[in-house]
Amino acid sequence: MKFISTRGGECVTGAQAIAQGIASDGGLFVPETFPAVSRQELEEMLPMSYAERAAAVLHKYLDEYDYEGLKGACEKAYAQFEGGDPAPLVKIDAGLYILELFHGPTCAFKDMALTLLPYLLRTGCDLCGIKEQVLILVATSGDTGKAALEGFKNADGVKIMVFYPNDGVSKMQKLQMSTQEGDNVNVVAVRSNFDVCQSAVKTIFTGEEYKEELKKRGYILSSANSINFGRLAPQIAYYFSAYLDLVSSGQVEMGEEVSFAVPTGNFGNILAAYYAKRMGLPVGKLICASNKNNILTDFIRTGTYDKRREFFKTMSPSMDILISSNLERLLFELADRDPVHVRLRMDKLAQDGVYTLYDDELEKVRQLFWADSCGEDETVETIYEFFEEYQYPMDTHTACAMYAASNYMAQHEKESAPMVVVSTASPYKFPQDVMYAITGNDIKDSFKAIKHLNIATAMKVPVSLSKLRDKPVRFTTVADKDKLFAEVLKFIDNK
Ligand SMILES: *Cc1c(COP(=O)(O)O)cnc(C)c1O
């Protein structure tokens, strides 16, 4: 299977697409065609474990990777998840389910891909004949950095360095990163906000002089962010697995459609659901849920993407986003894979901050998606109501999706297929907000809130979070934004 750029300039193998991350024309890599999964293949996947299902889906795209190798890597990655099943489906009510994707090492859904990415990346480099060590640089506002550190810790042939804004992450997130284990990891706080931190890291990625300097030392740069196809591919697998679980437990008939509601930020998670549909999985509507930052809701309803608006900080920070980079892959499909249109829109977005779809494209969007946004009060109310009614505690991001799913089901009673709400984080990752929503108690300390939330809900506290309190802090460096490359060199020169 070959991969092409959404902007038309490049055609590479899957291994190259993953090793490179982004196309050299600035576009995103997409598969040349969508590999089909037949009804018979779906039937054959029914008795498989999660890791086997994931390997089967991945191998459809990454056919130059060895299947047994992929399977072994999936087994190793998902063995790190707590509780046996890496993606359990919980029945909430008739026709309403929650797909829990937060049982990985950092308690957020990014673990589903980032536990596997090191294998996909290193093997991709090997397949391409890249001999250098890989240096991963990440600028993070919280969740991605920790998930990437956990995924890449002690990975062969890879080093990872994470930069976060010193005043821009939660106490819990800072603690998660500063106590990170592993011989090949480094974490640096930057005296700035996230945007400055991100652009300082981007400077390193785009500067030839930096690449030269690293090459001399035997390193190439790579990135672990969500536009890498190696992040997208493992996410397609859990839509298949959720569907198969519904079939094997007799809740839906093979072939019957199932809808998914997804809390959306960068559009990576929900795009994976769309890819699953294109591969032949019987997917009904895709419910795109936003928080108060409702740019995607407006886009799906009106066809106009307009980033000229106020940015809000919310209690679902991983969805606080104005530019959803993975949307470019959907635009490519909407335009019948015409890269000229994609380029026009991306240029327009960069220059004017806005673009509008053609009518036929908007019609396609409406066929596929339905969108809603959930404000701060609605987030709190949804967590409260679902806990009252079903004793199910959910996190602030999941609540946005549940809110949108409820509204969709209320408005489409007759046609509603079974609905799976995708849960992207453990409630213990945002213990103060969830505790406040459920009990009205405003607790200042994260660990105290975890304890009280455990008493209130009887839900098990994830081991990785309960251990955090007693872990030694390993990383304390705080750097100015123009000193980041010096920190990189210190790290790889082992000073
Ligand atoms: C990253 C993240 C999201 C958003 O996912 P996208 O793929 O960027 O749309 C939602 N919830 C949580 C908890 C996340 O960490």
Give the SSE layout.
Elements: E1 2-5, E2 11-13, H1 14-20, E3 29-31, H2 39-45, H3 50-61, H4 67-78, E4 89-93, E5 96-100, H5 111-114, H6 117-127, E6 133-139, H7 143-152, E7 158-165, H8 171-178, E8 185-190, H9 194-206, H10 208-216, E9 219-222, H11 229-248, E10 258-263, H12 268-278, E11 283-290, H13 295-302, E12 304-306, H14 327-334, H15 339-352, E13 354-356, H16 359-368, E14 369-373, H17 376-390, H18 396-411, E15 419-423, H19 431-439, H20 446-457, H21 463-468, E16 478-479, H22 484-492
Helix pairs in contact: 1-6, 3-4, 3-11, 11-12, 17-18, 17-19, 19-20
Pyridoxal-5'-phosphate (PLP) binds at residues 108-110, 143, 226, 263-269, 318-319, 397, 424-425.
Task: Walk me through this protein's architecture.
By secondary structure, this protein is an alpha/beta fold. A hairpin with a 2-residue loop joins strand 4 and strand 5. Helix 17 crosses helix 18 and helix 19 crosses helix 20. A six-stranded mixed β-sheet has the order 4-5-15-10-11-14, with helices on both faces. It has a five-stranded parallel β-sheet with strand order 9-6-7-8-16, with helices on both faces. Strands 2-1-3 form a three-stranded antiparallel β-sheet. The protein has 22 helices and 16 strands. 47% of the residues lie in helices and 16% in strands. Bound molecules: pyridoxal-5'-phosphate (PLP). The site of pyridoxal-5'-phosphate has 17 residues, from helix 12.
